[in-house]
Structure formats: structure tokens, C-alpha cells
Specification:
globular, seven-stranded mixed sheet, alpha/beta
Amino acid sequence: MSSDANRLAGRLFAPLARDYDRWSLVLSLGQDRRWRRAMVAGLDLPPDSTVLDVAAGTGQVSRCLTERQFRVVALDQSSQMLGLAARKGFTAVLGRAESLPFDDASFDGLTFTYLLRYVADPPACMRELARVVRPGGTIGMVEFGLPRGAWKPLWIIYTRVVLPAVGAMISPGWKDVGWFLGPSIAGFHRRFPPDALLQLWESAGIGDVRAARLSVGGGVVMWGRRR
């Protein structure tokens, strides 16, 4: 059964599917693509590995994975987003990250992008993600971060003023996302600061966790290995 968090994600992003790739790149000032590619580059898996791309959306990470000769399954709860991934040629499965329709240890690796802010129980979701990865397999994540120091006020201005204003010029759907993102990102990082996020992964049975802050902290990429 979908949670309130799942339904919120569906309501926000389903209307954006058709032009999501273009505007997510523009509104992230080109950094979103950089973060996704950095995450995939750090997976440390051999070619022909099977990788589950969770919260795959329109298949942007799936494309990066196939470019590195991985065999990819793209999973998302949004039929609108996933339909675009399927049209790009990816094996697409409709499903929720909290209840994956796969057996234990089915994949050599797993990626997820901007996911944990949209699930009701992040610790349980992390355990479920880890469940379908074989021992020794790699898990990678992309999430928005919070810049520090002199960059933080600029980030606040961009997310609280510029992003909603530009979103409103694109479409009502992007306006809603523009207003939502800044508070959502800040709230998640209050709940899961770096040490708590590390513990979240380790408690799910994922070790050797490492993280990189990219774009002056606006993006966070994490990797870990299934114990």
C-alpha cells in the first residue's frame, strides 16, 4: 500500500515526465547530470554486472549504467516516468522501493536517486534495498545536499526564491516542485545529518560506506558494499 510520502511523490512528479530530463538539467544548473555520472562511475563493478536502478524515473541513471556495459533493470512507482524509460529501451518494472518484487541477492549492484525523502520509513527502505543485492555488491545513491559556509545563503536564495519563480514560468507542475524542494531537502538533512545517514546505511547491512559532496555541497553521492 502506498504511503502519504509515495502519493506526494507521485502527485508532484507524474505531470513532469514529458519534459523532466530537460528541465531537471536546467534547474540544477547542469549539476544533476554530473552527480548521476559520478555515482555510476564509483560503483566499482565489472562490466556485465546486473544493476537495479531504483527510483529510475525517466532512465537517466539507467542510461549511465548501460554506457558502462551493465545490465540494467529500471524500477519506479510512476507509470508516467517509467513509460519514458521503457521507450528508451530499458527493462522497466513498476514497483515501490519499500517492497521490491525481486528475490534476495538478485542483483550485483543497486542505484537510487532522490528517493529517501519520499518514503515513510527510510530505515526500512534501506533494508529492503540492501536485501536484493548480493553480498559484496555495491549500492550507490544521489541526493541533494546542503552547502556550508558562504555558499549556504546563496543556496537558500536559489531554492526558496529563484527555483519557485523559474518553475512558475515553466508550468504549474514545476512551480509546485520549485516550492517543495528547498524545505524538503533541508528537512531531510535535519533528520539525517551526515553521521545519521551513515548509520542508516550501516544499520541496513551496508559497509565500507563513503560519501562525496559535489558542487560546493549541493549534491551528495554515497556508495557502500552489501555485507
